[in-house]
Predict the 3D structure of the following.
Amino acid sequence: MAAWRAVVRVLRSPLDILDTVSCTLLPSHCRICDEPLLHLSTSPVCLTCWQHLPTQSDSLCSLCGEALGLHAAFRRLEQWTQPGSTQPGLEALCEPCQRLRPPFEKAVAYGVYEGTLRALIHLLKYEHVSAVAKPLGALLAQTIQAMPNLPQELTVVAVPLHPAKERQRGFNQTALLAEEAVRALRSGEGMRRFHIEHRVLRRKRVTESQSGLTPHQRRRNLRGAFFVALPEAIQNRAVLLLDDIYTTGATARECTRTLLAAGAASVHVATLARSQREGVAFWDAPSLHAGQAGNVPSLLQDF
């Protein structure tokens, strides 16, 4: 074994020397932390940044992935310890999902939309650094692989941009992520079958950027914005809807409703990142604490 390791070191040494010389003669810096890149890579991001992505470690809603927080976790523990409770049957649900369950089966995300993960998504989305799509797609594939009760055959649909917006940007970052994720899944998955259908879901009108909008404005902005161009491609099929970021869930819910209305059997949602703060802000809004408890279902009808 020691002899074999020595052979490997000898074989690798010319490559290591080339790597060092190339990085010395053609220095480059990480686009996230600005530290020098010590190894040749197609992605302009250092290994340290890739290793420090903000994953989700909090107690999460079993349907939408909203962070429940310590208070909710202790409340679930109290319910489980009540006489006659059946622990496996209890769902850990956030307040919105308790009041009105989302139309999708489950939504999951790789990590929290902050720090390094946020910067990586911005590199792809706004700075057109397409090289990060492959490693980000691999992270999305890991998230999909870990989803429980996922159907064996899935039609993969990326959240679309309006054609005018896609022409302006030059690409749909979610479509790139979907392609890389499915490529990683096909190389590692022996059981499930994934079929990408980019032409199925379309936007029928240009919508305002969701960034900076309140949850209510987001829902109104997206209402009726999507349509299914090829209903036969999803008829009675399980759909895996992919996006880069899940914020309030307005996009996921509207796309899911559109897909189900066109004949999809079910919809699961997977995203790279999950923004937790705006969901909490929505439930802390003054309108929900001003004697309008009876109006909550109508406020939630398109959440």
